[in-house]
Amino acid sequence: MAQLQIKPPLQSIYFIYGTEEYLIETIQKRIISLAITHEDQAFDMSKYNMEEQPVEVAIEDANTLPFMAEKRVVIIENAFFLTGDTKKRKVEHDMDRLAEYVQSPSPDTVLIIIAPYEKLDRRKKIVKSLEKQAEVFEFTSINDSMLYQILSDEAAQNGTEYTRQGHERLLEVSGTNASILVNEVKKMTLYAAGEQVIDRELVDRLAARTLESDVFQMVDKIMNRKPEEAFRLLADLIHQKEEPVKLLALITRQFRIALQTDLYQKQGFTQKQIASRLRLHPYAVKIASSQISRYGESALKKALTFCSDTDVSMKTGTMDKVVGLQILIQKLVSL
């Protein structure tokens, strides 16, 4: 898990970006714990949200001497100005002040800049400067071995074994969001109390299902030509008041992933490379790869056409939304 290690000595600036919330939070906590004690955080740690406060206020704080501790910690959150986002906001930022600080940071401060976004705008000088001057952590994706290690460690802290079978089933049931998975493992370790292992059976009994995983299961039934089971899953989701248009979008996404995986595999890309290109967890690509053999490129393209036609019918009101999904499923299982 080298990606989560802090190399000594502490740096003056840490730049963390990406969409993996759990990893961002974890590395941030580790930096803070190395820089300052919990007791001193009330006096010498500050957070600034760039959606609400100008960056120059944070920089002024970063140039202030610590009050109690040896170091001051200043955290800049939601640094949207490092992306290509052009949305107008009520707060204006003095980027020159930030640029000056990056070039000459205070030796008494640890500045943590967090950009929880998928992409940066590397044409911007400030982004280039940060990537050169700061210690950078990129968390745009998480590989399966790292995720398995995180969850195994979480279970081990409570004296519980986390099995590979349990891991595979948990991904199927609860998705691949690390924060959600950590919470699920915490819940299961409390139940297991060190006397049971977290295996497939325990996951089936205790893990919370996500909408995405339910739709994934439904698409899998469709691709396996099991319409009765697919209709049953659809009925359950409708009963749970899930919006049909949202369900259609998730169904379409799953077929699109399968088609993209098929096309990339034909070009010789590995599952790991495909996951990186599509910015998906490798498990999603692994499952899509297994589905391809049951459908094929031609059928996947037709499926996406059917999904597009259904979307138009739903949004123009020419067809009842639930009926539209039922007809779509019948078409998809017939391909």
UniProtKB/TrEMBL annotation:
Domain (DNA polymerase III delta subunit-like C-terminal) ranges: 212-331
Annotated GO biological process: DNA-templated DNA replication
Residues forming coiled coils: none
Record field: catalytic activity: DNA(n) + a 2'-deoxyribonucleoside 5'-triphosphate = DNA(n+1) + diphosphate
The EC number(s) this enzyme carries: 2.7.7.7
Entry GO terms, CC: DNA polymerase III complex
Signal peptide, first to last residue: none
SUPFAM superfamilies in UniProt: P-loop containing nucleoside triphosphate hydrolases, post-AAA+ oligomerization domain-like
Single GO MF annotation: DNA-directed DNA polymerase activity
Keyword entries, A-Z: DNA replication, DNA-directed DNA polymerase, Nucleotidyltransferase, Transferase
DNA polymerase III delta N-terminal domain segment(s): 14-139
Record's keyword annotation contains Plastid: no
InterPro entries per the UniProt record, alphabetical: DNA_pol3_clamp-load_cplx_C (IPR008921), DNA_pol3_delta-like_C (IPR048466), DNA_pol3_delta_N (IPR010372), DNA_polIII_delta (IPR005790), P-loop_NTPase (IPR027417)
Annotated family: Belongs to the DNA polymerase HolA subunit family.
Protein name per UniProt: DNA polymerase III subunit delta
